[in-house]
């Protein structure tokens, strides 16, 4: 049925993820993300198209590997939280380049949370010191637990040190993570949280240029997974940390505008993740170096996620609804004729 | 239900259009298009974002008036026709700028055909000599009948002179239009078709720089509605016609790349449709002048069309399906908790 487009609803995404298990999904997604970053040259890297307003932003993030085309619709409205609405909602479409026909529409609010964590773990696997088991997570909002689970599934991290300015958020994270076998410390400060942690994940929702992590708290060899700073005017790390670190980014032209490195000179050297993953360049240049993955979220990660969901729902029937979205006249030039012929059917169905 | 997004399927779009009547829909759409062009300054005019491949193009066309945000996904794959697929398929989304939440998803293959014809009629109402009743239509593909019906409903055109290189297409158009009370001549050549016609619509599918309409066939006072030339390397009019005409376009930066005027110098004077509609500039500068509406299709027309459908389906319940597309955790920071709570529900529903 070429005129039907499979749709993965929020309900079915939850069934799919719960059915496979969150850790399994994160591991699989990491594989898809790494595979796509390794074939970086195959992708169209269009900048995201943003419509800014006083209250937030609506963005379209398209990319293509020449076989499939994907885009994500995503908004960011911090004030939504006060009205009981989601700050970020998202959906995405995967289409066939050869015909231009959409092949999948999917909710992406949950999927974005999963792919963000998977991408962080892919970068950490290439950058963090081997054998790290302890991670600090500064900021215990919606993304916190997904980061923890991805790092457990992919790197074997099983000791967490959590901190948030709001202790309610930390307790929520601890409660949600209870079943996964972590050893969890709820820290009273950032300084306490980072004690003995080989990986520090910063994922706060602070919308300003804040210094969540000060330079004096970061010891030699630590890997920083900086996830929360992701738009102009929103950063989390002290610039001093960045100046002495090996910095890895998704796509430099975008990260220089949106990432932690907006604090640095526009020509400050950074390495792109695909270069590290393909071995073209080293990520970590020494055992005692500090590494930073300055993550802002990139269209290829969404493409990988849509590709993953498309593969899974093709294997497991029953996770999609078919949307009647593509007009399909018997003769392509006869669109009005199709409307006329639908008069009877329309009345019957109405 | 804020997490549900109303979806207008192809089936429901046909029910809606047949229920209201095609001519009524075209008239209403023309009103929405004119209203939006008159408040031109209110809109974000982002260029369309195109992904080109050997076989075609996939485009995203976003715009916003500060209250609503809309975008259309549309492909163009000429070779699809040979495989029994649509050359152009489209769908669109209307969202609320204040929250970023999608408010409507709609099929747009049919809707694009309607809005293109409505926009042509809006331009012709402002440009064609008063009282014209005869229109030639060169190219009798899918768009032909919609053009005819829009010009009948909005300008009172009731005599048609049809020509296509493929007589099968012309017969199809005549058959489809039989019920609407036109006097129709099937012409054997372009020259025969344009005889006595005050409006000439060119809407061929020729993908090259073709000269469908030669200069010597265009008499004084004629309005040319040039719809078929709409991408780089695809034009229909002799450049000589353009050089002596008053040219009106939707959005000059886009039309200079995609429209008939790609044949002219980049600084050749043109007027934008909104300037004519608001009275800021004249469109037709004299009774004996030739006017050309060089139409390529613009994001605001799609926005008007989505706005129209949104208003109609709000009035007439039963034309939408609700899509469960926006994740809605009880506590926005508790996305993993939402997944956990869905484990039971998921199994029950599965």
TrEMBL record, chains A, B:
Specify the domain of life of the species encoding this protein: Bacteria
Q: Which family does it belong to?
A: Belongs to the ornithine cyclodeaminase/mu-crystallin family.
To which species is this protein native?
Oharaeibacter diazotrophicus
User: What protein name does the entry list?
Assistant: Ornithine cyclodeaminase
Q: Sorted alphabetically, which Gene3D superfamilies does this protein's record hold?
A: NAD(P)-binding Rossmann-like Domain (3.40.50.720), ornithine cyclodeaminase, domain 1 (3.30.1780.10)
């Amino acid at each position: 049925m070429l005129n039907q487009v499979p749709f993965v609803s929020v309900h079915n995404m939850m069934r799919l993820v719960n059915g496979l298990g969150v850790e399994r999904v994160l591991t699989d997604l990491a594989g898809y993300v790494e595979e796509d970053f390794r074939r970086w040259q195959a992708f169209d890297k269009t900048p995201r198209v943003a419509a800014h307003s006083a209250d937030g932003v609506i963005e379209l993030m398209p990319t293509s590997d020449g076989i499939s085309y994907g885009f994500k619709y995503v908004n960011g409205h911090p004030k939504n939280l006060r009205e009981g609405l989601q700050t970020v909602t998202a959906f995405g479409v995967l289409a066939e380049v050869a015909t231009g026909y959409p092949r999948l529409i999917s909710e992406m609010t949950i999927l974005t949370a999963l792919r963000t964590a998977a991408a962080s773990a892919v970068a950490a696997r290439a950058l963090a010191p081997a054998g790290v088991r302890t991670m600090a997570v500064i900021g215990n909002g919606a993304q916190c637990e997904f980061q923890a689970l991805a790092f457990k599934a992919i790197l074997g991290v099983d000791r967490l040190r959590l901190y948030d300015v709001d202790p309610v958020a930390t307790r929520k994270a601890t409660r949600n993570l209870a079943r996964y076998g972590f050893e969890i410390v709820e820290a009273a400060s950032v300084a306490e949280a980072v004690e003995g942690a080989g990986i520090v994940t910063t994922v706060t929702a602070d919308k300003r240029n804040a210094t969540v992590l000060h330079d004096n708290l970061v010891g030699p060899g630590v890997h920083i997974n900086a996830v929360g700073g992701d738009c102009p005017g929103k950063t989390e790390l002290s610039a001093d940390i960045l100046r002495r670190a090996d910095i890895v980014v998704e796509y430099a032209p975008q990260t220089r505008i949106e990432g932690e490195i907006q604090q640095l000179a526009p020509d400050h050297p950074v390495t792109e993740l695909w270069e590290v993953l393909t071995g073209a360049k080293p990520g970590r240049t020494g055992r005692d170096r500090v590494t930073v993955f300055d993550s802002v979220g990139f269209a290829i990660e969404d493409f990988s996620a849509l590709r993953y969901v498309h593969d899974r729902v093709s294997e497991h029937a029953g996770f999609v609804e078919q949307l009647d979205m593509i007009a399909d006249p018997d003769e392509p030039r006869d669109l009005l004729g199709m409307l006329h012929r639908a008069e009877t059917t329309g009345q019957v169905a109405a």
